[in-house]
């Protein structure tokens, strides 16, 4: 199992750590076998993404579990996303909308607390998955769903999750609120 993304500089003890979230809610309950977490607090972020890239290049991904952010991001690939890089993991400068989403979800008290950078699986690496399941809850993501997935909406780095329309084996699950603008 490969972890998609994590904030640069954030340790697993922080409540907003995606590593912590996955450990508590998935790994400790399901025991999926070998897990490769993104170590957000690694002393050398470039070395960490190189480590993960080396590991993932040796195998591949059968199933990617992803979501769509309020700004249309896929993993932490904020707009405009890099659709071209073959690098499996990237260091991303998070945009204000993405950082504000984290505050809105209650993970941080204010935007100043949200890290400005994250390590993320690249769009191309996600798209190499055999299958993708994308789940999107909440009304606050309805506009992003519309911009990315509606019929006629272009595939564009300005709407990163729109790239999912080009995958031959993707399944999207929306709650009523997230799909309300379709």
Topology overview:
Blueprint: E1 5-7, H1 18-30, H2 45-57, E2 63-66, E3 89-93, H3 96-104, E4 117-121, H4 123-127, E5 131-136, H5 142-149, E6 170-174
Parallel strand pairs: 2-5, 5-6
Antiparallel strand pairs: 1-4, 3-4
Short description:
The protein is of the alpha/beta class and 182 residues long. The chain contains five helices and six strands.
Structure commentary:
The strands form two sheets. A three-stranded antiparallel beta sheet has the order 1-4-3. Strands 2-5-6 form a three-stranded parallel beta sheet, with no helix packed on it. The protein has 182 residues and is α/β, with parallel strands linked by helices. The chain has five helices and six strands, in the order E-H-H-E-E-H-E-H-E-H-E. The chain has one domain (5-174): 3-Layer(aba) Sandwich (Rossmann fold), CATH 3.40.50. The protein has helices at residues 18-30, 45-57, 96-104, 123-127, 142-149; strands at 5-7, 63-66, 89-93, 117-121, 131-136, 170-174. The relative contact order is 0.17.
């Amino acid at each position: 199992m490969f972890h998609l993304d994590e904030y640069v500089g954030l340790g697993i003890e922080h409540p907003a750590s995606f590593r912590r979230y996955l450990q508590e809610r998935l790994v400790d309950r399901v025991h999926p076998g070998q897990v490769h977490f993104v170590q957000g607090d690694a002393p050398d972020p470039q070395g960490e993404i190189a480590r993960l890239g080396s590991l993932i290049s040796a195998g591949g991904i059968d199933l990617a579990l992803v979501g769509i952010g309020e700004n249309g991001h896929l993993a932490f690939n904020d707009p405009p996303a890099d659709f071209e890089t073959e690098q499996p993991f990237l260091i991303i400068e998070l945009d204000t909308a993405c950082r504000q989403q984290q505050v809105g979800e209650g993970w941080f008290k204010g935007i100043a607390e949200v890290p400005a950078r994250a390590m993320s699986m690249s769009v191309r690496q996600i798209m190499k998955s055999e299958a993708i399941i994308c789940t999107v809850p909440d009304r606050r993501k309805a506009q992003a769903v519309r911009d990315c997935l509606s019929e006629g909406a272009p595939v564009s780095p300005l709407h990163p999750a729109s790239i999912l329309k080009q995958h031959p084996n993707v399944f999207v699950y929306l709650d009523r609120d997230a799909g309300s603008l379709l």
